[in-house]
Specification:
Blueprint: H1 29-38, H2 44-57, H3 71-78, H4 94-101, H5 108-118, H6 122-141, H7 144-155, H8 170-183, H9 187-195, H10 201-216, H11 227-245
């Protein structure tokens, strides 16, 4: 949904508030990243192989894609996931992976290698794990403010509630997503607030939408382009989660 407005500054385009925009006609690298982790069933070696297949075989790419694999992920694949730790290697893309991992029963020690595979830096570890904890707290208690307080306590980290910059740095991305989610009073409001702020609004809008979808229990599949190609990955992941919980 936010792809057409990516890179644009707030106030430089006409804000969108119409429900018809809740479709998502274009695929981005965030979609591909999501499919890579869904199809891995939370197995690290499978996830790494899926990233290679995305990079080298163009798997997990939709027919109307914009903004494909980012430079950081490309370098991770080229170096066989043995990248050098650097604070500059701290983008938001691995947050997409954490959306799926947070729904699993994996521990912190099991999740960190997934993050390290592409984003090997201290800020990525800290804020990706916080994002996982926030999602899990939100599912556990069902209250926005309580979930945020619990996650902050568990991670010994405090979110800047004034950060709405929609930046690509992982701290800015996490804080923007959390704040748009907290600010919105409905699923639609959360997403449109995030998108209308521009900059990295494709990823920020998607991640905000993930939180809002969990919280408001909204399922939007009607009108999403090529949803039938995505649905099998989702169904297989859900089936495996359910089997493991029995």
């Amino acid at each position: 949904m936010g792809v057409p407005y990516k890179g644009k500054g707030k106030g430089t385009f006409k804000p969108i508030w119409t429900k018809s925009y809740l479709r998502g006609d274009k695929c981005s690298g965030n979609t591909s990243m999501l499919l890579c982790v869904l199809d891995s069933h939370c197995r690290l070696e499978c996830y790494q192989q899926n990233l290679k297949d995305w990079s080298l075989k163009k798997k997990y790419i939709g027919d109307n894609i914009e903004y494909d694999m980012d430079v950081i992920t490309q370098k991770a694949v080229q170096k066989n996931f043995r990248g050098v730790s650097s604070d500059s290697n701290s983008g938001y893309r691995s947050l997409v992976t954490c959306c799926v991992l947070a729904l699993s029963s994996l521990s912190k020690d099991e999740i960190l290698p997934f993050i390290k595979a592409t984003h090997n830096c201290r800020y990525s570890f800290q804020y990706n794990w916080f994002f996982v904890e926030f999602i899990r707290c939100l599912l556990a208690c069902g209250d926005k403010e309580q979930a945020l307080q619990l996650a902050e306590q568990k991670c010994e980290l405090q979110i800047n509630r004034q950060n709405f910059c929609n930046g690509s740095f992982v701290i800015d991305a996490v804080e923007s997503v959390i704040n748009w989610f907290m600010e919105g009073k409905s699923y639609k409001k959360c997403i449109f607030l995030a998108i209308n702020s521009g900059k990295e609004c494709d990823a920020i809008g998607a991640l905000t939408g993930f939180l809002a979808g969990l919280y408001y229990k909204i399922e939007l599949t009607n009108g999403i382009r090529n949803f039938e190609t995505i649905e099998p990955y989702i169904d297989a992941f859900i089936k495996e989660l359910e089997e493991k919980r029995i």
